[in-house]
Amino acid sequence: MDVFTDEPYRGNPLAVVGEAADLTTEQMQQFANWTNLSETTFLLPPTHPEADYRVRIFTASEEFPFAGHPTLGSAQAWLDAGGVPKQDGMLVQECGAGLVRVRRDGGRLAFAAPPLTRSGPVAEADMLRIAEGLRLARHELRDGSWLVNGPDWIGVLLESAGQVLGIRPDFAALGDLNVGVIGPHPADSEVDFEVRTFIPGDAAVEDPVTGSFNAGAAQWLIGSGRAPSSYVAAQGTALGRTGRIHVDAADGDTWVGGSSAARISGTVVL
């Protein structure tokens, strides 16, 4: 699946394996390691009565309870395979983090951002380490917050999208910190924010488009009044991608949406 883009091969790739009920955890992890993608998912029958399907999400080295682009890509793949939701216009995904609602948003799908399991200020020692890893002066980091909703993200706000795009990270200095950086575009731009996410030690050290981080960043920035309740973020620009994340906060939910489409279909021998 090609997730968070309308342009073929310009989003974040995701491998989705259907009919995975007979696979062991070890087989899933090994296949995810072999694909060398940021995530690989496996579709299973639901165990919760309200869920339409269950998904397990793996990176090359571990299983995640939740991740954003795997949620949208898996939902689209389930629909493409003939899945019919129990509720009209709304899917319910069962995953390690619980039940996640996925709604149709025009031609896109959007998931309801799960609650943050950790939020709040980042220790100054970590902020100094992040500044070093981003090759920026400490004062250029306007703010930082833990944004944990599955992956352990730290969000960093910069002054502008130009600063975000200019980063040339020192991954060794970042160590084991997963850092997402966001900065506003000028008011007359096509999109409102620019995002980049860095995952030192992962198969893809810079993720093309990251649903989980954008979900946490939206809750943080909208909640603090630094972003409007509805906006579009770009991600992947530095990697030659055209990721677009559509955010809409309403009635107590933050919806994170984007387009997904299958690019490769076939069978997997396991």
Report on this structure.
This protein is an alpha+beta fold. It has two domains: 2-112 and 257-261, Diaminopimelate Epimerase, Chain A, domain 1 (Roll); 118-256, Diaminopimelate Epimerase, Chain A, domain 1. Helix content is 21%, strand content 34%. It has six helices and 19 strands. It has helices spanning 25-35, 68-80, 124-134, 161-166, 171-174, 211-223; strands at 2-3, 12-13, 15-17, 40-44, 53-58, 63-64, 90-95, 98-105, 108-112, 118-120, 143-148, 152-157, 178-184, 193-198, 206-207, 230-235, 243-250, 253-258, 260-261. The strands form two sheets. It has a 16-stranded mixed sheet that branches. α2 crosses α6 (211-223). The longest helix is centred in the first third of the chain and has 13 residues, at 68-80.
Q: What profile does the largest beta sheet have?
A: 16 strands, mixed
Quote the CATH topology of the largest domain: Diaminopimelate Epimerase, Chain A, domain 1
The helical percent reads: 10-25%
What is the CATH class of the largest domain? Alpha Beta
Unreliable residue stretches: none
In CATH, the architecture of the largest domain is Roll
Q: Supply the CATH superfamily name of the largest domain.
A: Diaminopimelate Epimerase, Chain A, domain 1
Shape, principal axes of CA atoms: globular
Order of helices and strands: EEEHEEEHEEEEHEEHHEEEHEEEE
Strand content: 25-35%
Please provide the count of β strands. 19
Backbone CA Rg: 18 Å
Report the end-to-end length measured between terminal Cα atoms.
20 Å
* Number of domains as seen in the coordinates: 2
The structure class reads alpha+beta
| Number of helical stretches of at least 4 residues | 6
Mean pLDDT: 96
